[in-house]
Amino acid sequence: MSLNPNQPLTKLNVFSFKGIQMRSFHITWFTFFVCFFGWFGLAPLMPTIKEDLHLDKSQIGNVVIASVSGTIIARLLIGKLCDIWGPRKTYTALLLLGAIPVMCVGFAHDYTSFLLFRLAISVIGASFVITQFHTSMMFAPEIKGTANAVAGGWGNLGGGVTNMIMPVIFAAIVGIGYTKQEAWRYAMIVPGALMLIAAFLYYRFTKDTPAGNFDEIERAPKVKGKKNYSVLKDWRVWSLALAYAVCFGMEITFDNVAALHFVQEYKLSQGTAGLCAGLFGFMNLFARALGGLFADKVGKTYGMWGKGILLSLVLLLEGFGLILFAKSGSFGMAIFFMIFFALFLKMANGTTYAITPFISEKNIGLVSGIVGAGGNVGGMLFGFLFKAKGITYLDAFSYIGMIVIGVSLIVLVTRFSKEEKRVRLKMAMEYNK
């Protein structure tokens, strides 16, 4: 671990709360975890909401699209705000603003108003960019991929816990005498309140960098215009955005439709379907961290080229897993292949952000925002498949699997390091010895 308390850490001890680096790390992943409650709290309650608001398949598809659409623009803006304001102020502002539609969605009484609230809530998804930005500031390059993956994975775990807990909160509210139509509305007050608590904790107990907040320290001046423009021309950024579109994009899509899919396909109760969908999210407990850990280890030996190969491989396995999930003939096999593709999907998430901070270290926020927005573009586009009347949910999963395999090939041929030729030559010379 770094000996200087004002420098990024070189080791990640997840059991430590000592120092501003580890305190910020734990508050950051916990805040992202809470954001998932607000962002996807409605997803496991959709069977009830569908009946209450009389939603058809096309309307549900639009809701799925809306749930990720606002995040696209928000992630691009948030990345730049992190570079300017710092993650502490940016996260606090997002939490305070995001809590409003979460707690007020209960006022929706028809399809249109519910759709607009869902769109507003989707802005909370920009929290991921701040999480990755803040973690990148607190850890040294050799451990940055692992730290980002653990923080992102434990935060994403909120998606699984949400699928399990929100039906319980819903049932408890029904149990004390409220109707189902009232219960889903009151249930959303809980994640909104948690977001307000997280806003206080974040502002009070974190710092932008190990050396202090942005307004307390001297920062190197930024070169305007040309530098950012060069980032936008960098194909590596867009390759990573594509990769994230088919891994994280699929994750948030599955978070949105899984409970409803299990209810419709296997006639499960809302609570049981939420538990099954929660298993998917619970893979984040270790799988995303595993991707970051492997990427850091591969990177020490093979550099960015090795990380790119690893990302391509896990995407390939995710794609095959999705196709097998779609072809499952029984509930048991569906759960098995769901866990299979979830493992590699979440490893792909971690691997992607083990590469992202190294594309342009002077524009970490901007690059993180673009790649993160790519995830939501993928989620939005996948939503159209689940909306289409002529395509079943199983067909949609199968088509997405094929798309993931295609993207894995694009990643395979992308040179993520400008020194790739030198690395390959060195490997060849060592092999010939």
From TrEMBL:
It is found in: Cell membrane; Membrane. Keywords: Cell membrane, Membrane, Nitrate assimilation, Transmembrane, Transmembrane helix, Transport. It is a multi-pass membrane protein. GO terms for molecular function: nitrate transmembrane transporter activity; nitrite transmembrane transporter activity. Residues 24-419 form the Major facilitator superfamily (MFS) profile domain. InterPro entries: MFS, MFS_dom, MFS_trans_sf, NO3_transporter, NO3_transporter_NarK/NarU-like. GO terms for biological process: nitrate assimilation. Gene3D superfamilies: MFS general substrate transporter like domains (1.20.1250.20). SUPFAM superfamilies: MFS general substrate transporter. It comes from the Bacteria. PROSITE patterns: MFS. The chain crosses the membrane at residues 27-47, 59-78, 90-109, 115-133, 154-178, 184-203, 237-262, 268-287, 308-325, 331-352, 364-385, 397-417. Belongs to the major facilitator superfamily. Nitrate/nitrite porter (TC 2.A.1.8) family. This is Nitrate/nitrite transporter.
